[in-house]
Amino acid sequence: MKIARIETFLAPPRWMFVRVETDEGVVGWGEPVVEGRAEPVRAAVEVLTEYLIGQDPMRIEDHWQVMTKGGFYRGGPVLSSAVSGLDQALWDIKGKHYGVPVYQLLGGPVRERIRAYAWIGGDEPEEIRDALTAQIEAGFTAVKMNGCGRMTPVATRAEIRAAVRRAETAREVLGDDRDFGLDFHGRVSPANARRLLPLLAEAAPLFVEEPVLSEHMDIVPDLVNASPIPIALGERLYSRREFIAPLRAGVAILQPDISHAGGISELRRIAALAEPHGAQLAPHCPLGPVALAASLQLAFTTPNFLIQEQSIGIHYNQGAELLDYVADPEPFRFTAGQLSRTDRPGLGIEVDEAAVRTADRRGHAWRNPVWRHADGSLAEW
Ligand SMILES: [Mg+2]
Fold first, then answer.
1. Is residue 354 part of a domain?
2. Residue 174: per-residue pLDDT
3. Which residue ranges does the record assign to the Mandelate racemase/muconate lactonizing enzyme C-terminal domain (predicted)?
4. Looking at the structure, do residues 259 and 330 belong to the same domain, yes or no?
5. CA gap 238, 225 in Å, rounded
6. Ligand 1 mean position to 54 CA, how many Å?
7. The domain spanning residue 181 has which CATH number?
8. Of 85, 101, 117, which residue is a domain's last?
9. Once rounded to an integer, what is the mean pLDDT over residues 328-348?
C-alpha cells in the first residue's frame, strides 16, 4: 500500500483537515492546524506531502521521525502541527486497514468511558451562574472557564478580587461533587500569579491552567509551591522534550494538544513520560471532530489520563460546529458528561467529506483578537 494523494481543507470556524488517500482506496483524516495560523500549517503540510507521496502509510514511526527530524531546522508550532495532523491520518489508515480502533493498536483499552468537560463563557458572576447551571443540566460533571479577563501586569485589588469571586461563584453553584478548571490563558503576570494562587485555594478548582505563559517555565516551580492547587499547562508546548521542565517543576496535569504536539505518536510518549512523575494527561482540544476523535483513541489506552477538553458549544465556534463535519454524531454523544468507547475502526468517526469540501470553498481567516490595556499597550489574549 502506498500513499497516493494528500489534500487539505480549511474549515470554519478556525480549523483545517487533511485527507490522506492510499492507492488501495483507504482514506485517513487528520487535523493539522494552529488556531490563527492555519495557512502556514497548510504550506508545511504541502512540503511534507512531497516526501510522503509513494511511501508505505504503515510505517508511521519512521515517517514521524523523518517529518520531525529529517530537516536541519525543526520544531515549533507550525511544523509540529503539520506533522500532528498527518500522524493522525496515518493512524486512521492503519486502524481502518486492520479493521480495529487505533486504541487497539496502542495496547488496548484501559477504560470504557472518557470524562470530558464543557466550556462556559460569561464574565459576570450572574452569567457564570446561568452558564454553569446549563452545563449541570446537560449532564457535565466538570466545566472549564477563563479565570480572568485582561489583567494589568501588577493587578489592582479589584482585579484580584474579581478573579477570586469568579472561582467562588463556580464552587458555590457546582457544589463539592463537581469540578471546574480555571484557565488563566497566560494572561496573568508572574507577580499576579503568586498573589492569586493562594487566594484561589479555598475554592479548590480541579486545576489552574497556564497561570503564566509556558515561556516563564523558570518560575513555575515557585507557583507549584505557592498553593495546593494542581497546575496544568502544555497547550503551547510542541514535543516531549518541552514537557521535561514542567514535569521536573511539579506540574500535575499536562495538556498537550494532539494537533500541535506531534499527533497520537508523540502524545502517547508524553503520557508515558508523565506517568513516573505522577502527572496526569488532560489533552487540550478546542478543535474539530478529527482532533477530538484522535484524543479519545489515546485516552482509551492511556492509564494516566484525567479528563478531555472538547469544543462543542465553546465560545470560539462561530458559524460552524464540531458535529457539522461528521456523518454520524453517535461517537460524540455525551452521557452524564462522558463519551463511551466504540469498536469503530481507525479514529472511530466517519468524516462528512461533502461537508468538508463545501466548507473549504468558504474557508476562513480566523485570527485571535488583539487585546490592549487601558493605556493602549498590548495585553495577552
Ligand atoms: Mg487553555
1. no
2. 97
3. 125-230
4. yes
5. 25
6. 38
7. 3.20.20.120
8. 101
9. 96
Residues whose CB is under 5 A from ligand 1 (ion)? Answer: 183
| Cα gap 166→183, rounded to integer Å | 12
Average pLDDT, the chain: 95
- The single residue listed with the C-alpha cell 495557512 is 39
Element (H, E) at 295: helix 289-301
pTM over 0.85: yes
Residues 290 and 163 in one domain: yes
> Would you state the cell numbers that stand for residue 227, as one nine-digit string?
498553593
| Å from CA of 4 to ligand 1 middle | 37
What is the length of the chain? 381
Say yes or no: 220 and 264 in one domain. yes
For residue range 6-60, list pLDDT tens digits in order.
Answer: 999 999 999 999 999 999 999 999 999 999 999 999 999 999 999 999 999 999 9
Distance in angstroms (rounded) separating the CA atoms of residues 126 and 172: 12
Per-residue confidence band for 68, with pLDDT thresholds at 50, 70 and 90:
very high
Split into its structural domains, the chain has a count of: 2
Note if 315 is an active site residue: no
Q: In this structure, are 38 and 181 located in the same domain?
A: no
Q: List the catalytic residue out of 63, 97, 260, 284.
A: 284
Ordered DSSP codes for 100-115: SBHHHHTT--S-SEEE
Q: Is 185 a catalytic residue?
A: yes
The domain boundary, picked from 101, 125, 159, lies at 101
**213: enclosing H helix or E strand:** none
* 62 closest CA partner among 41, 86, 38, 43: 86
